[in-house]
Amino acid sequence: MSSVTVKNVQKSFGDTQVLRDFSQEFGDGEFVTLLGPSGCGKTTMLRMIAGFEKPTAGEISIDGRAVSSERTFVPPEKRDIGMVFQSYAVWPHMTVFDNVAYPLRIKKTPRQELERRVEQILRVVHLEQYAGRMPNQLSGGQQQRVALGRALVAEPRLLLLDEPLSNLDAKLRENMRYEIKEIQRQLGLTVIYVTHDQTEAMAMSDRIVIINRGVIQQVGTPVEIYRSPANQFVADFVGKVDFLQGEVRGGRIELTGLGQSMGYQGPCAGKVVVAVRPENLSLVPPGGGQLTGTVVNKYFLGDVSDFRVDVGGAVIRLIEDPDRYEAMDPGERVSLSIREYLVFPDDGTGESLRIIT
């Protein structure tokens, strides 16, 4: 187990600044995800912790020992970390056993100890029955577990994962999320995980660090990030959401161009942006909700019904029980009951909603 401290780290490639004044602490035994759109700087931060890149400025410490600073640079092989890449990087000419054993052979670990540790890790990643197979005889998920086992067998203090599931199909990716989390709990590892997939981040993390354009936008638990986003970017990036512009007047929000309003007793004044998540909306008989609209389209997704409703010039999405699919048809007038919504000040630029890639 290990802790990592990042202080005022900046990174530029030529004239392009990728990370700006990044500071964060990753606690011993914690699973932290760096989450953000492509090009936001999350993989660059991970590579600097690993030692594959040097910060332009700032300091990185592992267990209180500086590994990257103005005066210090510890190479990757001396940082006692394990890393799993997006591409697996499994040796095609080696068996599963030999792939996992490779880091121990490099360290000249005695044979008996090597065999004991490899067999133990193969049990942890559920590959003991595949020890003699070649990589081309394995599924994508099994190859990913080989890469994970190889990273774990050297008993690193810190495990870094760089989008390790992005090449897997949806069902396998979902299964692997829970396997990785269970392994982390079982071994008590400190994990720093990089992804652009918000569902992955929500399912696996103790804390999430949201990054956009090289700047930390918010740090918190999955519940905090989802229910109390710090700004419109976070609300937009994590989960599904629709935005409506409006203005606060006399205890209500008058929705711009829609001819409708919503009750409001919060602190914002003047022009605002209302953020509504589709699971917080329900279809009710006309006159029974805060908004009135017309069903534009509907989609049956098995476990839920997915509706699009025009509320007078803006189309918003809502998720309902699957049995509502048969009960509602396009063209029907409906009211929308809103359980919960978020309100942000509107600076008029739309800047906080832009996802730069």
* Sheet with the most strands: spatial strand order: 6-7-8-3-9-10
Instruction: Name the average pLDDT.
Output: 91
Q: State the helical fraction.
A: 10-25%
**Rg from alpha-carbon coordinates:** 24 Å
* Helix vs. strand class: alpha+beta
Q: Would you report the number of β strands? A: 20
End-to-end Cα distance, whole Å, is 34 Å
Uncertain regions: pLDDT < 50 for 5+ in a row? Answer: 351-357
- Basic shape: globular
How many helices? The count is 9
Which range does the strand content fall in? 25-35%
Instruction: State the order of secondary-structure elements, H for helix, E for strand.
Output: EEEHEEEHHHEHEHEEHHEEEEEEEEHEE
* Assembly state (oligomeric): single chain
Q: How does the major sheet shape up?
A: 6 strands, mixed
List the helices and strands and how they pair.
Blueprint (H helix, E strand, L loop, with lengths): L3 E10 L2 E11 L4 E5 L6 H9 L6 E6 L2 E4 L12 E4 L11 H11 L4 H14 L15 H13 L5 E5 L7 H18 L2 E6 L2 H7 L2 E6 L2 E6 L1 H6 L4 H6 L4 E8 L2 E4 L4 E4 L6 E7 L4 E4 L6 E10 L4 E6 L4 E6 L3 H4 L5 E6 L3 E4 L12
Parallel strand pairs: 3-8, 3-9, 6-7, 7-8
Antiparallel strand pairs: 1-2, 1-4, 4-5, 9-10, 11-12, 11-14, 12-13, 14-20, 15-19, 16-17, 16-19, 17-18
Helix pairs in contact: 2-3, 2-4, 3-4
